Amino acid sequence: MSQAEPTGPARAVWTLGLLRNEVRTTLRRWRTLALLGVLAAVPVLVGIAVKIETGDGGSAGGGGEGPAFIAQITNNGLFLVFTALAATLPFFLPMAVGVVAGDAIAGEANAGTLRYLLVAPAGRTRLLLTKFATTMAFCLLATLVVAVSALAVGALLFPLGDLTTISGTRIGFGEGLGRALLIALVVAASLTGLAALGLFLSTLTNSGIAAMATIVGLLITVQILDQIPQLDALQPYFFSHYWLSFADLMREPVYWDDLVKNLGLQALYAAVFGSAAWARFTTKDITA
Fold first, then answer.
1. pTM: predicted TM-score of the whole model, two decimal places
2. Which of 94, 99, 92 is nearest to 212 (CA)?
3. Dist. CA 175–CA 272, nearest whole Å
């Protein structure tokens, strides 16, 4: 027998309970814990590699050929946060988000639990919104795992203190820490479009593995296409094109143009593929 639809405050409480349960279930999965473990290990490996290289008399970044942040790690461990985010954003972070987003609906269908989740008072729209919110919560958590791991390793292996921005100006450690947090939030927001795309793909199949593989395949394809000069007219519309614009937050003054374009593009992807996911999911025959 269906449950009565809650109204008013009871609906809000029930929805928050559903979201809390979804987040808890996602974080309890071994696959999720393994993904977070890999993300936490990346800053450790980068930090150790830089420490070994500089300990042997070399210079981080291969004499200036490396990323803009990596040459500064030995001077200030806070730069390991920026370097780790730059290293994980092209593939590791979006892959982790793609796995969670791709499994959101398709995984429930494959496990035979989707019908039970749709028993009133859940409803398809509310369940879809809850799944998207859960995926976005994972985006934030995964980004913070990288940032916190990098900050801890940077503090252990390298000195901390005032730092020099990309523009060459000096800022205090407190302001640098604040910019690191802002950068982490921007990186998490940069994954919004991919999360919506993954959720849409998850509504198209009953196989979580198929949805995950499709997302990872699209991610790799888009990254390759974004490097082909002949496609420069299309590249600004790729969801990953402005991902590394977060580096502009380490300029003085901050360059906002690409940052705003990135957030606007992510909002557009979220609107388009979120709507497509809703249209598909609300009309889909649920057989599992």
1. 0.88
2. 99
3. 36
Q: What is the pLDDT of residues 63-107, one digit of tens each?
A: 433 456 787 888 899 999 999 999 999 999 999 999 999 999 998
Cis peptide before 9 (omega within 30 of 0): no
- Count of all residues that appear for the chain in the document: 288
**Counting runs of H as helices and runs of E as strands, what totals does the chain give?**
10, 2
CA 134 to chain centre: 12
Q: Which two tokens stand for residue 70?
A: 């990596």
Whether the CB-CB separation of 231 and 225 falls below 8 Å is answered with yes
Q: Are 277 and 203 in contact (CB under 8 A)?
A: yes
Tokens (6 digits) for 231: 């496609």
Report helix, strand or coil for 171.
Answer: strand
How far apart are the C-alpha atoms of 194 and 205, rounded to whole Å? Answer: 17
Report whether the peptide linkage leading into residue 94 is cis, meaning its omega lies within 30 degrees of zero: no
pLDDT at residue 57 is higher than 90: no
- Which of helix, strand or coil describes residue 170? strand
| CB atoms near residue 7 (< 10 Å) | 9
Task: Output the pLDDT for position 5.
Answer: 52
Sort 167 into a burial class: Cβ within 10 Å, 0-12 / 13-18 / 19+: exposed
